Amino acid sequence: MSKRDYKNTSVQEPPLDYSFRSIHVIQDLISEEPRVGLRPILEHPENLAWIDLSFNDLTSIDPILTTFFNLSVLYLHGNSIQSLGEVNKLAVLPRLRSLTLHGNPIEEEKGYRQYVLCTLPRITTFDFSGVTKADRTTAEVWKRMNIKPKKARIKDAL
């Protein structure tokens, strides 16, 4: 196999542990600075499958995370994420299977678990707990009772 062929193959990057680093903004990790950024550390950043950003100072889910299409495990617990709507950003990650958000202010929101499970139906582990069939059923019932369809929202706005 030539070097050129090797570069075109899918190589999974090792997990990145950026926990307990007092990170405020994820963009700081994507810097081109060799001592700071992901790019110099990762040969194929698009193949990153696991990242731990737990116990930092993140207040939102940075859209840069949505560029890692092979991301399957994302730890965001112990941060300062305040809006459940932030979870919507992660819906574009087709391989995301495990997510942690406990220890963030959003955990105190009514319907926290159900909202996340409705928004991210492919995840199988949430906050280090397996997602059961009963969880899925409860989340669907919660969704029907609490989330208006988009068409209804448009009519309400008129």
UniProtKB/TrEMBL annotation:
Question: Per the record's keyword annotation, is Cell inner membrane included, yes or no?
Answer: no
Q: Where in the cell is it found?
A: Cytoplasm
Question: Per UniProt, which keywords does this protein have?
Answer: Cytoplasm, Leucine-rich repeat, Repeat
| Any one of the GO CC terms | cytoplasm
The organism's superkingdom is given as: Eukaryota
Record-linked InterPro entries: Leu-rich_rpt, LRR_dom_sf
One Pfam family here: LRR_9
Q: Which PANTHER family match?
A: LEUCINE-RICH REPEAT-CONTAINING PROTEIN 51
Instruction: Please state what the protein is called.
Output: Leucine-rich repeat-containing protein 51
Q: Which organism does this record belong to? A: Ictidomys tridecemlineatus (Thirteen-lined ground squirrel)
Organism placement in taxonomy: Eukaryota, Metazoa, Chordata, Craniata, Vertebrata
What gene makes this protein?
LRRC51
